[in-house]
Structure formats: C-alpha cells, structure tokens
C-alpha cells in the first residue's frame, strides 16, 4: 500500500496513528531494509533542505538528524514521532473536561486561569506546527516551544506598548498585588572606602546573579573578546547613566573589581570553559539497545540533554560591515533594557517576573545567536532564522517601550564629561567603518590598478 506523506516542517516522520501499516509490518519492513534505503531518511533529507534557509546549515542539520534517526533502535523511533493527533485529542479532552466542570464565580480566578490556558494552548500549537530551528537537543519540540514563548512575549510587548505608563504599571498588580507601587531608591556609592566591612555590605544576591548572568552570556556568545568588550562597555554605560538610574551609581572598586575582575570574569571564564568542553567533547549517539550496561544506558539518557554538536563562534566585527553593526547593537542596547524596564514599570529587581524574563531571554538567545552567526558568516545564507527574527523584535520593542515610558522620567541632564566622552566615542564608532570598509578597500583597489599599469609598462 502506498504511503502518503504530508509535507509539513514538523511531520518529517509520519505519524503512527495515521499510518496504514501496522507496527509489526513496519518493524519487518525496517528490519529488511538497509539504512540508506529507508524512505523516511530520504524524505528527512529532502524535507530539511526545503525547510531551512541556509545551504551550509542544511547540510549540517540534515546529516545530524539523519544520523541520529538511523542510530535509534525501533522502539525508540516510535517515541520520537510527532503524535499530532494524540496531542489534539488530549487538548480537546481537557477542554471538554473544563466545559463540564463546576462553574467558578470568581472573575479574577477565571481570567487568570483562562489566560494561562490560552498561553499553554498556543505553546502546544507552536510545538506541533512551528518549523524546526538550529538545535535538536534534548528534543526539537523543546525549541519549538521556546519559539512559541518568544512569539507570546512579543505579543505581550506590543500590547504593553499601546498602554499608558500608569495603566501599564497598574496591570502588573493583577499578577502580584504587591506591584504597582514606586520602588525605593538605592545607591551603591554612599560609602566608597576600600575596606572589608564596606565591601561585605555590597555583597548581596546580585553578586551571584552577576556571575550567573555572565556565565549565560559566555555560553550564548562563545567569544572571550566579545564578552570582555561587553563587560567593559556595560560599566561605562553605568557611569554614563548614573544620573538617570540611582542603582548605576557605584564605587570605582565596585565597577572594576567586584564587577569586571571578579563576577564578570569568573562567569565568563566558567562559561567559556563549558564551551571549550562541549567543543572538544566526543559525541556518540548510540541506540539504547546497542548499550549493554545499565550505567551506559543512564549515561546515554543524560547525553540527550547535551548538544548534538558544537560550533565555535568567531564574530570578527572587523571582517564586514554587517558584523560590525551587529556587535555594536548588542553592546549598546541588549544590556540596558532590563534595568530600564524594571525601573519604569516598578518591578523590584528581586521579583520573580524579572527572573522569569531573564531565564526566557537566555532560552530565546541560544538558538537566536546561532542563527545570527550563521546569517553573518555564511555567504549562502540570505535569510535570518525565526528565533533570531523574534529576538531582534523583542529587544527593539522593549527599547521602544523604554523610550515611550521614559518621557519626563529623567529630568536631570547628563554631566558635561559624559557628553564629551560619548561625542568622541560615537565619532570614532562612526568613523571606523568608513575607514575599514570603504577607504581601505578603495585604497587597495587603486594600488592594485597602479601595480597593473607598472607591470604593463615593464613588459613594454
């Protein structure tokens, strides 16, 4: 009997529930075929080639996915099938159960539960129907769910943008009644004596948050140089914006010793060591049935939560104008949104909403950075991936919200020294690409023409 395969980016493997062949017939057919004759793998290759935008990434992901699929034993193969009809049945069954449950008369509870259920339904739809991204570990469905969350976050930001500042602040009190009130101001520069007692007073939970944050940045960016430049630039931004945000006012040793040399460096070091380990690690994806010992099976199960392979990033901001602009935008914008949003929306730094946002942005950034790097470094890639597109939209929408809600919030003008510094720095930042990407290539072309003319005269 001919098998009908529907070309969807997530149904790369046919669903057993829709398959006219029984499990026993399919087992017999797979057992009698050589791996290179498996029609599922052939479809996998052709389908992934159509689904991905970049040819180099096509080859890498197709090879990784087909090798992974061919190494699975039969029992596990059936567990990685999409199960779209099963998921649809479970979702509809849950909705039927809710429809016939006792009615709750509490409007606030109904609204909160309804919004939560709508979010879960959207994530389920995205997990089943969105296309695959650059990662396949621990499962492609996880990264589709991450993409769904990124879409929901963007929709929430757009909704927030259309509110006024007072209503936006008040809305968060529906999530947590303690929110919606002005934040107490705190400065870290009240006592700058370099003594142990003063330094110990500055050590709080944010020190650990600093370290973990830079560990995450190192894992995402995978570049020592990039992380160091980002670390120093952020401290400069804190100096420059201390007249707007009081918590940016810190002692000199807090900026350069506690932050840069201890927290930022240690987090970056541990993150880059993790990257080096994953880069050099030998990845072996044997089927569970091929592993004889229970310990080996447990180790293989843990490996499912590690990357299938690892790509070292070399951003090279001086190699092209696109790389230069991308790095500059990352340096200037990404780090500041978190601080301005929590100040303008009256969200305490330790509140769980801030923590959830940081964790979500970390998950969004992992596949997004991989897609941005592919777009910048692969000449055959002419389309940016969905994760990267949404993260850029998230960051820029956050920035627009900060500009809108920041009106009349910062009456103090910037100090003269800050204005002079940024005038010089921005002039250099604007002049460098003109020199590097226009003047130097044009000068090389002129010299090449002169060498050709001189060579022609010598031959004559």
Task: Describe the fold and architecture.
This protein is mainly α and about 450 residues long. The protein has three domains: about 80 residues, no CATH class; about 270 residues, no CATH class; about 45 residues. The protein has 17 helices and no strands. α2 runs antiparallel to α3 and α6 packs across α7.
Task: Describe the structure concisely for a colleague.
The protein is mainly alpha-helical. About 65% of the residues lie in helices and about 0% in strands.
Major beta sheet summary = none
Number of helices, where a helix is a run of at least 4 consecutive DSSP H or I residues: 17
How many angstroms separate the termini?
77 Å
- Overall structural class, as computed from helix and strand content, comes to mainly alpha
Strand residue percentage: under 5%
Q: Report helical residue fraction.
A: 55-70%
On the 0 to 100 scale, the average pLDDT is 76
- Ranges with pLDDT <50 over ≥5 residues? 1-41, 43-53, 72-79
Gross morphology:
globular
Order of helices and strands: HHHHHHHHHHHHHHHHH
Number of domains: 3
Q: What integer value in Å does the Rg equal?
A: 27 Å
The strand count comes to 0
Subcellular location: Endoplasmic reticulum membrane
Region (Disordered): 1-39
Biased composition (Acidic residues): 14-23
Biased composition (Polar residues): 1-11
């Amino acid at each position: 009997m001919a098998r009908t395969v529907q070309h969807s980016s997530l149904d790369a493997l046919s669903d057993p529930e829709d398959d006219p062949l029984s499990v026993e017939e399919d087992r017999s057919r797979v057992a009698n075929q050589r791996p290179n004759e498996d029609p599922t793998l052939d479809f996998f290759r052709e389908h992934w080639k159509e689904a991905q935008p970049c040819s180099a990434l096509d080859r890498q992901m197709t090879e990784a996915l087909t090798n992974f699929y061919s190494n699975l034993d039969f029992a596990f193969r059936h567990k990685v099938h999409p199960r779209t009809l099963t998921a649809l049945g479970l979702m509809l069954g849950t909705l039927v159960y809710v429809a016939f449950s006792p009615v709750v008369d509490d409007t606030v509870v109904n609204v909160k539960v309804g919004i939560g259920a709508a979010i879960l339904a959207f994530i389920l739809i995205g997990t089943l129907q969105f296309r695959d991204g650059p990662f396949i570990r621990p499962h492609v469905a996880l990264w589709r769910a991450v993409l769904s969350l990124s879409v929901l976050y963007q929709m929430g930001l757009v909704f927030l943008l259309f509110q006024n500042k007072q209503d936006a602040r008040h809305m968060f009190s529906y999530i947590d009644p303690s929110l919606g009130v002005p934040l107490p101001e705190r400065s870290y520069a009240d006592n700058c004596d370099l003594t142990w007692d003063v330094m110990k007073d500055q050590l709080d939970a944010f020190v650990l948050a600093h370290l973990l944050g830079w560990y995450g940045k190192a894992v995402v960016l995978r570049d020592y140089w990039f992380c160091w430049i980002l670390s120093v630039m952020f401290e400069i931004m804190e100096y420059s914006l201390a007249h707007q945000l009081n918590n940016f006012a810190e002692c000199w040793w807090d900026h350069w010793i506690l932050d840069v040399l201890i927290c930022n460096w240690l987090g970056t070091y541990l993150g880059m060591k993790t990257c080096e380990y994953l880069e050099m690690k030998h990845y072996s994806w044997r089927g569970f049935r091929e592993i004889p010992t229970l310990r080996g099976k447990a180790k293989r199960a843990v490996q499912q939560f590690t990357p299938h392979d690892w790509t070292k990033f070399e951003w090279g901001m001086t190699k092209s104008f696109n790389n230069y602009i991308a790095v500059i935008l990352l340096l200037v914008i990404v780090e500041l949104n978190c601080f301005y949003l929590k100040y303008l929306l009256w969200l305490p730094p330790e509140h769980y909403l801030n923590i959830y946002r940081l964790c979500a942005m970390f998950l969004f950034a992992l596949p997004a950075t991989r897609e941005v790097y592919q777009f910048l470094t692969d000449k055959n890639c002419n389309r940016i991936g969905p994760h990267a597109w949404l993260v850029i939209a998230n960051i820029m929408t956050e920035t627009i919200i900060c500009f809108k809600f920041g009106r009349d919030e910062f009456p103090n003008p910037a100090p003269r020294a800050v204005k002079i510094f940024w005038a010089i720095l921005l002039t250099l930042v604007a002049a460098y690409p003109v020199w590097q990407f226009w003047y130097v290539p044009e000068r090389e072309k002129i010299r090449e023409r002169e060498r050709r003319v001189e060579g022609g005269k010598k031959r004559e």
